[in-house]
Amino acid sequence: KMANTSKDNFPKNIGIIMDGNGRWALKNSFKISEGHKKGVEVVREIVEESVKLNIESLNLYAFSSENWQRPKAEINAIKKLVIDAINAQVPELKEKKVQLKFFGHTEDFGEKIINKIEYAELETFTKDKNMNLNVALSYGGQQDILDIIRGVSKNILEGKMKVEDIKQETVNQFSCAPVDNLDLLIRTGGDKRVSNFMLYQIAYAEIMFIDKYWPDFSSDEYKKCLNNFTKVSRRFGKRI
Ligand code: IPE
Ligand code: IPE
Ligand code: MG
């Protein structure tokens, strides 16, 4: 494993709500799908920068449970982009030892994408990874909480667990989220909301809202966010 050269007070687990692809496309008189396409290019740049900065995990919100309510044509364009992005980026991720994982109800995307995801996760699996790249697909924080309750309830009914055994770790164990806590959550696109992303895991996250649309976000903007993070006093409720 690479020596950790990053500052001690750097965030380990970062989440990004990559918002603004549609408005970026409209602003530039492009089709909406062009906005998503440009968005994928920015993902590549931010992943590369994150590896350089020794970030432990980057957790990207790519498609929410609620995004199924969008027009069929847009959803199909996104599906195609997911496949193209995996094909194009897996070799590079493998070379950089970035382990790719998808979380959420990925099965909603159908067999073709399920197979691609499986290939991407197997292909990038490594024992000496430099970073985890976790991509949320058909993910909702509230839906995850329901799944956690269902999972725990089932185990209790089957006598595998007792009510008194439910701990914070139990929640983490039953959650589909790949990390227990986010240190930093960035949302681009100007809106100040979390739109159902990792609700349980953002309990003590520093949240940064950036006005730029995701396709206009860059590694320079990203480094500014990280630099601001290092200046924050994280007290976790303590008197320090
Ligand atoms: C975020 O960009 C990407 C997805 C939700 C898939 P949007 O498509 O939401 O962009 P805006 O918010 O409409 O500009
Ligand atoms: C959040 O963006 C979801 C993703 C970035 C994948 P949305 O565009 O779906 O969120 P709202 O509708 O503005 O809250
Ligand atoms: Mg949006």
Quick tags:
240 residues, binds magnesium ion, 6 strands, disordered N terminus, 7 helices, 6-stranded parallel β-sheet, globular, binds 3-methylbut-3-enyl trihydrogen diphosphate
Short description:
The protein has seven helices and six strands. The protein is of the alpha/beta class and 240 residues long.
Describe this structure in words.
Mean pLDDT is 96; it is low at 1-6. Strand 3, helix 4 and strand 4 (131-139) form a beta-alpha-beta unit. The protein is of the alpha/beta class and 240 residues long. Helix 3 runs parallel beside helix 4 (111-124). A 6-stranded parallel β-sheet has the order 3-4-2-1-5-6, sandwiched between helices. The protein contains 7 helices and 6 strands, in the order βααβαβαβααββα. The chain is globular, with a radius of gyration of 18 Å. Magnesium ion binds at residues 19, 189.
Question: Which SSEs are present, and which pair or pack?
Answer:
Blueprint (H helix, E strand, L loop, with lengths): L12 E5 L3 H7 L4 H21 L4 E8 L7 H24 L2 E6 L7 H14 L6 E9 L1 H17 L10 H7 L9 E4 L18 E4 L9 H13 L9
Parallel strand pairs: 1-2, 1-5, 2-4, 3-4, 5-6
Helix pairs in contact: 1-2, 2-3, 3-4
Bound molecules: 3-methylbut-3-enyl trihydrogen diphosphate (2 copies) and magnesium ion (MG).
